[in-house]
Amino acid sequence: MTVIDETAGALAPAAPAAPLLDVRDLHVEFRTRDGVAKAVNGVNYSVNAGETLAVLGESGSGKSVTAQAIMGILDMPPGRITSGEILFHGKDMLTMSGEERRKIRGRKIAMIFQDALSALNPVLSVGYQLGEMFRVHQGMSRKQAKLKAIELMDRVRIPAAKERVNDYPHQFSGGMRQRIMIAMALALEPDLIIADEPTTALDVTVQAQVMDLLAELQREFTMGLILITHDLGVVADVADKIAVMYAGRIVETAPVHEIYRRPAHPYTKGLLQSIPRLDRKGQELYAIKGLPPNLTRIPSGCAFNPRCPMAQDVCRTDVPVLHQVGPGRGSACHFWKETLGD
Amino acid sequence: MTDSPITAQGPAAPAAAPQGEPILQVRNLVKHFPLTQGILFKKQIGAVKAVDGVSFDLYRGETLGIVGESGCGKSTVAKLLMNLEQATSGEVFYKGQDITRLSGRALKAVRRNIQMVFQDPYTSLNPRMTVGDIIGEPFDIHPEAAPKGDRRRRVRELLDVVGLNPEYINRYPHQFSGGQRQRIGIARGLALNPEIIICDEPVSALDVSVQAQVVNLMEKLQDEFGLSYVFIAHDLSIVRHISDRVGVMYLGRIAEIGSDAEIYEHPTHPYTQALLSAVPVPDPEAREHRERIILSGDVPSPANPPSGCRFRTRCWKAQDRCATETPLLAIPERFADSGTLAAHESACHFAEAVSY
C-alpha cells in the first residue's frame, strides 16, 4: 500500500494532500491545587475535508481539552499549552495573533457543544443568536440576518421556522435546541466542525435524528468533522476513523470497521468487551478493573498498566509509542501483537 | 450469623422468575402534577400527566427493567413506589398492603423493606457527612434494625460487601470517584436489608469502563440477598443485560411489557420497535443489516397528551381509530394462542410481530 503521509506534504508545501487539520504532539497542562494535571500528553491526529474523525474516551481522557485547544477557547490560566502545533490548512494556529485566530474561529472552525441549553443565551431569541453570526462576521443588517436565520432553521428542519424565529431557547425541546446549535455552527459554512458529545444529552430516538442530520450536512458541505464522544455505538454509525484516548494520549487509531472487529489495544478491547451482549446474558459482564488515573499522578510507563490484564514489567517503565500495526492503524501498546492475536 | 441484617432471609428466589407471588403489585397508578395560575388565588389550569395508569407486578428475586425516554414518567413511578410522591390515584400493594394510603409509622415500617439507589452519586450523598455516617444513617431512622454499639461494625461489613475498603469509613464523599460513590449509595440502600431496591438510572452517570463493575456488583448482591430490583434506565443494552422482564414506557403509560426476549427480540409495539432500531450498535457490520426507523418529531408535552394512543402523533401506523380509542395493555388477540414470543402485553391496535 502507498501511504500518503507528512513526508509527501513536506516535499511540496501546501500540496492539496495536506490535511485540513493536523494536530502535532500537543501537550496541555492545568495548574491545580493538587499539582500540575497533565491533561493532554502528546496528541497527534489529522482530519481531511469531508472526513469524520471520532475521538473516543472517558471523562478525563483529554478529548475535550484537545478540542478546546484547537478552537482556542481553553481557559488560560489555569490551562497552558506547553508544546505542540495545531496546523489548520498548513498554518500553525498556536503562533497566530489573536486577530488571526478570531478570523478562523466560528468562520472556518465551528463547535457544537453538548448542552445546548447552557450554550445558548436564555434571554435572546434564537433568531437573534443565529443572526448574530451574520451581523458580526458579514456585517449584514438585522433584517437580512433574520431572513438568513430562518433559512438556517429550515435547513436543520425546524418545523415552522418563520413563526419560531422569535422564540427563546427554553421554548424548544432538547432535540430542537441541538439542531439550533448545529445551525449556528453551519451558519458561515466552516471547513471544520468540532462536535463535543453532541447527542449525549438527548434521548435515543432524537439522538438518531440529530446524528443523521449532522452526517448529511457534513456530506453536503464536504466539511471535516471531529466527533468527540464516549459512546462506542454513536461512533460506529458515522465515523470514518477513530482515535481512542486514555489519560491524555491516543492509545489506538484505526478505520472504524477494524477497531470493532480486532482492537489492537487492551483498553479498547476492554471497553468493547464490557458492553452487554445478547450471547452473554446472565453471565458477569467483563469489567476493566480499577479506575481511570488521577491526571496529577499519571502512572509511569503506559498509563493503562495498573488496569491492564497484559501488563508486564516493561509497561511500568517504558512509555509505549504508537506502533504501526496495519494500514492506517496504530496502537500504543508494547504487546499489540498479542492483543490483536487472540 | 443469625443476628446479621446483611444475610438473606430464607432461601434466595430463583433468578429468572415470574413465578410465585408478586412482592409488589402496581395497579392503575396515576400522578398528575397540577399546573396553577395566579399568585394569591391559585387556580388549577391543567395538569402534567406524568404517570397515567401504570400497572405491573414485581416478583421476588427478579429484576424488572423500565425503559423510556426522558419525560415518560419512569422516575415518577420510582418515587410513587416509595411513596415519596403522593399518588393521585391507583394502588401499590406491598404484601397485600396499599402503601399509597399509608403514613406515619406504618409507612416507615414498609420503607425499611423498599430502598432506593439514585442516579447521581455526586448529589445524592451529603458532602458534609462521612461515609460511615451516610451508610449508618438508615440505622438512626430505624434504630430497631441494629443496636447502637454494633452499627460501626455493620457499616464496615457493608463497605466490604460493596467492594470498598472498610478503612474508608471516616472519609468524605469527595474523596471517592463516581463509581465508588455509587457503591456507597448501594451500601446505604442495603443497610436495612430490604427486599426491594428501586434503582433510578444507577449507572448512567458513570464512565463506560466503570458501569460494568457496578452492574456486576448489583447482580452479585441480588443473588446473595435475594433482592428484587426495579431497574429504571434509558440504556437499553444494560437493561436487557440485567432484567428478567422489561416494561417500555411512553408518555406516562406502559406501551409494552414482557420478558427480555419478548421485548428485545419480538417487540410488537411500534414505539418499542423504533426505540430498539434507534439504539446505536457498536458493531458497524450488524448495523448495516438492520432496518432503522427514525421517528419524526419530539415527544409531546405530558400536560397536553394526544387523545387515544399517546404514540400516534409519531407513529407510522396511526389511523383514525388510534385517535379515538385508547389501546389497552393486553396480549394482542392475534398472538394470544400463537405460542410465540410475540404473545405478550402490548398497548397497540395494530400490534405486529417483528423479530430482531
In a few lines, what is going on in this structure?
By secondary structure, chain A is an alpha/beta fold.
Primary descriptors:
heterodimer, A: 342 residues, alpha/beta, Rossmann fold, 4-stranded antiparallel β-sheet, 35% helix, B: 356 residues, 2 domains, 7-stranded mixed β-sheet, disordered N terminus
Outline the structure in words.
Chain A: Belongs to the ABC transporter superfamily. Chain A: It is a peripheral membrane protein. Chain A: One of its GO terms (molecular function) is ATP binding. Chain A: Keywords: ATP-binding, Cell membrane, Membrane, Nucleotide-binding, Transport. The complex is a heterodimer of chains A (342) and B (356). The two termini of chain A are 25 Å apart. An eight-stranded mixed beta sheet of chain A has the order 6-7-8-3-9-10-12-11, sandwiched between helices. In chain A, strands 2-1-4-5 form a four-stranded antiparallel beta sheet, covered by helices on one side. Chain A is globular and about 65 Å long. Chain A has helices at 6-11, 63-71, 98-104, 116-119, 126-138, 142-155, 161-164, 174-186, 204-221, 232-238, 256-261, 266-273, 313-317, 336-341, and strands at residues 21-32, 35-47, 52-56, 79-88, 91-92, 109-112, 192-196, 224-229, 241-246, 249-255, 323-326, 329-331. Residues 1-15 of chain A have low confidence and may be disordered. Chain A is α/β, with parallel strands linked by helices and 342 residues long. Chain A has one domain (17-341): 3-Layer(aba) Sandwich (Rossmann fold). The relative contact order of chain A is 0.13. With 356 residues, chain B is an alpha/beta fold. Chain B is built from twelve helices and eleven strands. Chain B has a seven-stranded mixed beta sheet, with helices on both faces. The A-B interface holds A 58-59, 159, 173-176, 203-209, 211-212, 230-237, 256-257, 260-261, 270-272, 274-278, 281-282, 284-289, 291-292 and B 15, 69-70, 177, 179-180, 207-213, 215-216, 219, 234, 236-238, 240-241, 260, 264, 274-275, 278-285, 287, 292, 294-299.
